[in-house]
Every structure is written in structure tokens, then in C-alpha cells.
Amino acid sequence: MPRSRTPSSFQRFVNNSALEKFDTTFSKRFILTGKPINLSSFAEYNIENMFVKLRLKELLEINEKIYPNLDRIFYANLTLVEDCVIHSRVGSIGVTLSADDITHILAFPSEDFDMFSDYLNSFDFYPEGETRKIAS
């Protein structure tokens, strides 16, 4: 049975739909807290170079405290405002993010690129007997 809208839940959610999404979906989801990766531990496999070329290294090094319940509220309140712009609210803080904002936050390049083709074409190490032509 859905909860009734109380003053505290009214403040947390933008509308009844967001409250319902929280109760039925997001409140039950496990939030992966993550763990920063020490890429130098994998130096013999050239893993760090792979993530640099894929432009994902900064993403793997994020080491910030997270608040799982606030994450769930953020996603319950999330709406698509217009093409490639999302809006949400956590508490009294409104959050509006465009595709460009997300690209900047994750340190991805802003120009279009195919990260996998870009990576495969510049990969310096192939398993014995394989060539760039076979791998791509």
C-alpha cells in the first residue's frame, strides 16, 4: 500500500509520481558505493593505458563519499525536461544537467568519437599471433 503524502515526503519528492517511484522501485535498489581502482596494480597488463585511451581513467579514480538514500531520491525525482536535459531535486536543491554537463563532469571529450574503434586502432599490445586487423 503506498504511503500517504506527509509534509516531510512532500519536501523530498517533486510530486506523487516521484514518491510512488521511490516507494515501488528506487527505495529497494542497491546502490553500489564503488571503490577507487589503483590501476598501477595492473601495470603488467597495460590496463591503465587502455583506460586512458578509452578516456575513462578519471571515472575510475572517483573517490567521493556517497549518500545512497539521496541518490535514490535524485532518481525518483528525475525527469527529462527537453532533448538531452534532465532535471531532478534533492531536498531544496534543484539539479539540471545537459548532455554537455555530464560529459564535462565525467571528463569525456565533447566531440563525437567512437571510443572502441578509437581504442582498437591505437592499441599497442595484441596477444601473440593476433594483429590489429584480427582484433578489430
Q: Which residue ranges are poorly predicted, with pLDDT under 50 across at least 5 consecutive positions?
A: 131-136
Number of strands: 3
Biggest sheet architecture: 3 strands, antiparallel
Overall 3D form: globular
Strand-and-helix sequence, N→C?
A: HHHHHEEEHHH
Provide the structure class: alpha+beta
Mean pLDDT: 75
Task: List the strand order in the largest sheet.
Answer: 1-2-3
Keywords summarizing the entry:
136 residues; disordered C terminus; 40% helix; single chain; alpha+beta; three-stranded antiparallel β-sheet
Secondary-structure blueprint:
Blueprint: H1 7-12, H2 16-24, H3 47-53, H4 57-60, H5 68-76, E1 79-82, E2 85-90, E3 93-98, H6 99-105, H7 115-122, H8 132-135
Antiparallel strand pairs: 1-2, 2-3
3D structure, described in words:
The protein is α+β, with helices and mostly antiparallel strands and 136 residues long. Helices cover 40% and strands 12% of the residues. The protein contains eight helices and three strands. It has a three-stranded antiparallel beta sheet. It starts with 6 loop residues before the first helix and ends with a helix. 6% of the residues are buried.
Structure in a nutshell:
With 136 residues, the chain is of the alpha+beta class. The protein is built from 8 helices and 3 strands, in the order αααααβββααα.
